[in-house]
Design a protein that fits this description.
40% helix, globular, alpha/beta, Rossmann fold, O-methyltransferase activity, 213 residues, methyltransferase
Length: 213
């Protein structure tokens, strides 16, 4: 794909002032927000699933949360986890700018691997991960427990600045993401797809398991 075609696809769904404001807040605090193409893909998935309950790992300043909430049903609740309470404060400002009711967002400050085990099994339509890349494998394990059958797990930065596809790149984060990509592809009960949007968006549907006779 040529750079011009990639750029055209990436900006195909235009961002409004609320999203641009959230991006500006993210930049101020050094939080790297999801790309517009990957964000649009998240909104699409949330809409297709008519998502009512979503977990987000990595709140940032609310860019990905806005995309998810805009795709979810009107009474859907986003549970978003981040170690940075200040980032979550900025995200709440972004959600307020978009007219999102406070009861539709549950912000939890803390490490994802401390918080996720406290969430309800089989309750969530989507688990979206954009946290510590070295913990992506552990996030997958938690997502398999948290998702309902037919739910979707999603990982941002699945191509990690073109490093994942280059076997000579062996830093901890690249190795962890590369391992995750292979694990998702090899896991029975997952239907995966790796989209070349943004910095790469890995999606996998948790298959329905037939009931025993």
């Amino acid at each position: 794909m040529s750079p011009s075609s990639w750029s055209f696809a990436e900006t195909y769904v235009a961002e409004d002032d609320v999203l641009l404001g959230a991006r500006a807040r993210a930049q101020e605090v050094g939080a790297v927000a999801i790309g517009s193409g990957a964000g649009a893909a998240l909104r699409f998935v949330a809409s297709v699933l008519d998502a009512r309950a979503v977990v987000e790992i990595g709140t940032g300043a609310g860019v990905s949360g806005l995309y998810l909430l805009r795709g979810m049903r009107s009474d859907g609740v986003l549970t978003t986890v981040d170690v940075e309470a200040e980032h979550q404060r900025l995200a709440r400002e972004s959600f307020k700018d978009d007219g999102i009711a406070p009861q539709r967002v549950r912000t939890i400050a803390g490490r994802a691997l401390d918080v996720l085990p406290r969430l309800t099994d089989g309750h969530y339509d989507i688990v979206f991960a954009d946290g510590d890349k070295r913990e992506y494998g552990a996030y997958l394990s938690e997502a398999m427990r948290l998702l309902r059958p037919g739910g979707v797990v999603a990982f941002d930065n699945a191509l990690w600045h073109d490093r994942v596809a280059d076997p000579s790149q062996r830093d901890d984060e690249t190795v962890a993401i590369r391992s995750l990509v292979h694990e998702v592809a090899a896991t029975d009960g997952l239907v995966p797809v790796l989209l070349p949007v943004g910095d790469g968006l890995l999606l996998a549907k948790k298959e329905w398991v037939p009931e025993a006779d």
